[in-house]
């Protein structure tokens, strides 16, 4: 599996998509500093999970499958490897980028906090970023399958729209019913912000950490189901050997 992941990353090594895992956090932090000064951490983290991260995930997923569609999947049909394993390898490659970019974001926010104001301590920032990684993973196979069935732009726009609209129900007690709303909700105790960027009041129910474990477990179960189902669907339709 390691070789499959490495191979997938090599396919996009010279693309804009691969550069995003470092470039996006830098741009987010820079804009946050320009617009918010010493409150850069609050602004950057909020933009990160509401806007930037969903866009990056969609671009990565669409890019990894689009490079195969351009060659009508000839690059993978010549391999004596199960197509399901190739699909899982693509998803793990995107997951690696998702994990790395959250590390970069956390490191950048912590560094900016040292030179400006530490609005969010490093431990809370780290926990928040790692939780974002865990609860976004389930979206990867769905977006990549959507890109396979439609096209690059459609997949990006639909993914972005679902994630943006989901913030409306993030503060509801029934946020579990909308998995897209989970990221914006479970980081509240760590980033101490409403999804709209307003600081959370002391004593707010949004600071309760009791919802985190169930939400993460639900997201991981969804991830396993989506990985397995889309791996099976990937072998159907236009993916055939001559």
TrEMBL record:
Q: What InterPro entries would the database entry show?
A: Lanti_perm_SpaE/MutE/EpiE-like
Transmembrane stretches, start-end: 16-35, 47-65, 86-105, 125-145, 152-170, 212-234
- What keywords would UniProt list here? Membrane, Transmembrane, Transmembrane helix
Enumerate the NCBIfam families for this protein: lanti_perm_MutE
What name has this protein been given in UniProt?
Answer: ABC-2 family transporter protein
The species is: Acetatifactor muris
Phylogenetic lineage: Bacteria, Bacillati, Bacillota, Clostridia, Lachnospirales
């Amino acid at each position: 599996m390691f070789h499959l992941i490495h191979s997938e990353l090599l396919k996009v090594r010279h693309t804009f998509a691969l550069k995003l895992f470092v470039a996006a956090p830098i741009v987010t932090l820079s804009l946050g500093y320009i617009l918010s000064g010493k409150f850069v951490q609050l602004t950057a983290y909020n933009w990160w999970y509401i806007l930037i991260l969903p866009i990056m995930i969609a671009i990565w997923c669409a890019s990894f499958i689009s490079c195969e569609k351009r060659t009508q999947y000839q690059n993978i049909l010549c391999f004596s490897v199960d197509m399901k394993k190739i699909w899982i390898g693509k998803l793990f490659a995107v997951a690696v980028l998702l994990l790395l970019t959250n590390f970069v974001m956390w490191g950048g926010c912590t560094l900016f906090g040292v030179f400006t104001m530490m609005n969010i301590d490093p431990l809370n920032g780290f926990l928040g970023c790692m939780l974002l990684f865990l609860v976004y993973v389930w979206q990867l196979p769905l977006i990549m399958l959507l890109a396979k069935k439609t096209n690059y732009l459609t997949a990006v726009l639909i993914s972005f729209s679902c994630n943006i609209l989901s913030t409306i129900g993030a503060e509801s007690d029934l946020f579990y019913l909308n998995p897209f709303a989970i990221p914006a909700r479970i980081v509240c105790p760590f980033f101490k912000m409403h999804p709209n960027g307003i600081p959370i009041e002391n004593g707010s129910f949004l600071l309760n950490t009791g919802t985190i474990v169930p939400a993460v477990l639900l997201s991981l179960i969804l991830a396993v189901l989506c990985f397995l189902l889309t791996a099976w669907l990937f072998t159907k339709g236009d993916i055939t050997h001559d």
